[in-house]
Amino acid sequence: MPSRTEQVIDALVVGAGFGxxxxxxxxxxxxxxxxxxxxxxxxxxxWYWNRYPGAMSDTESFLYRYSWDKEALQTxxxxxxYVTQPEILKYLNFIVDKHDLRKLMRFNTAMENATWDAxxxxxxxxxxxxxxxxxxxxxxxxxxxSQAHFPNIQGINSFKGRLIHTQxxxxxxxxxxxxxxxxxxxxxxxxxxxxxxxxxxxxxSFQRTPQHSVPSGQRPVSEEERKKINExxxxxxxxxxxxxxxxGVNESDRPMSSYPREERKKIFEGLWEQxxxxxFNLSKFNDISTNIETNRETCKFINEKIDQIVKDPRKANxxxxxxxxxxxxxxxxGYYQIFNRDNVDxxxxxxxxxxxxxxxxxxxxxxxxxxxxVLIFATGFDAMEGAFTRTTIQGRDGxxxxxxxxxxxTSFLGVSMAGxxxxxxxxxxxxxxxxxxxxxxxxxxxIMKLIKHAESRSVSGExxxxxxxxxxxxxxxxxxxxxxxxxxxxAPSSWIFGTNxxxxxxxxxxxxxxxxxxxxxxxxxTDLGFPSYT
Length: 534
Ligand code: NA7
Hints:
This protein folds into 2 domains: 288 residues, FAD/NAD(P)-binding domain (3-Layer(bba) Sandwich), CATH 3.50.50; 183 residues, FAD/NAD(P)-binding domain, CATH 3.50.50.60. Helix content is 32%, strand content 17%. It has 17 helices and 20 strands. The strands form 5 sheets. Strands 1, 2, 3, 4, 5, 6, 17 and 18 form an 8-stranded mixed sheet that branches. Helix 5 links the parallel strand 8 and strand 9. The longest helix is centred in the C-terminal third of the chain and has 22 residues. It starts with 5 loop residues before the first strand and ends in a 7-residue tail after the last helix. The structure holds ligand NA7. The site of ligand NA7 has 21 residues, from helix 5.
């Protein structure tokens, strides 16, 4: 490892994705000497790594961007209702260059360990390049979904074709004319399979749990529509910050039971036509994820749609979820339709589980070998905790973050942890469950307030601020209680509850009331002079 000189700075931001870019900007704007390290060769975070075909945000384009760069908000082009991965990556790098942040960023550089020095009141951070940073503040913006979950399926090393995880998509791979298998039918698997079905020779979905998906309604956005949005941005953001989910959807306050039964089908049809999973879930009924009856009626509607779209009853049956609609809402650009193609098949792993991966493909429990050239894992992420397992972080009295999280990852408000002074997280566990692009902004803004408050109270020039243990404990209880009131709580395996990766301690990873509730709590915390911190 080449040795580099130590850099003494005010703040180190780890990660140059949506959160890290804004945090670096905010610190620079306010006169701090800041650096940002990023393990990828450029800025973009999850949108650099998730380059698989079909990768797209399912927050609508007008909100999948920063609110703080008003000029880019008005002028940066986005031709369609949703932005695709290459468009998002380009936008983020445009922002980095526009605000001259690149010179503060060191790419191909990963934080290896960080240690709190209580005498000097600084973090000492060592990177895999040998770079050492001595920083008053350490802000992790490493992404809640940045560590791939690659299940260790028997025989995996024997496969003689190509193994790919969607989270690290190889440049230049051509799937044209190949036999491709996909394991995983969450948001990623659904987008990927829809995109590659027309080009591959054969596509087999090895599906363990089917999920409900609604159309995204991807389409071009006219100049007139854009103009209207531009003129209305102030109100749009006011609405976003006053909503739970922050997706720009007017969230209904009416339960399904308040609509006559005969009207509901028509409402569902309208929602299906309109597209977007968040509009489908939130804009007409306020109890899809809290009331079992409402949830079941929603499932029934989607399952009927699957029956109408998918011609082969065997495939339709495999695709229809039997349980509640209680996972992260999915939307797609014609997912169910691909199963009408002769080259697309589905293996229902609940009936014939994978027995083993063999050199030529996958053998299922019925003894059949499904021959594959490429096997793609769309198996999701080791959420929240995963990014931190790549590093060693030692807080006060040598306390390891892995010990702090031995019962699952926790925080206070999603940004702070007791025993880890001057360390702040963007998209840490138990932050608001809302549109990620908005969440990272409000969290970074709160972090700036915390830093300034601490500095305003410092007499010696040394600054130490940390959440009280009881604040973190109480926040965990609040998040648990809120999550228990949701049907999502019963999901079979879900990264939102840390139950998708074997061996992880189940903990809810979000504050369910979302943005509005979180903003109210953090405003109160700020107005009262941060009583939950020392
Ligand atoms: P998800 O939503 O965690 O989905 C992972 C999928 O992989 C899901 O269908 C899993 O089935 C499947 N999976 C995982 N392990 C296995 C094994 N061992 N065998 C078979 N199938 C398996 O990840 P995504 O990447 O789709 O989406 C994550 C988030 O990224 C998404 O919510 C967006 O916010 C962006 P299971 O349901 O566990 O039976």
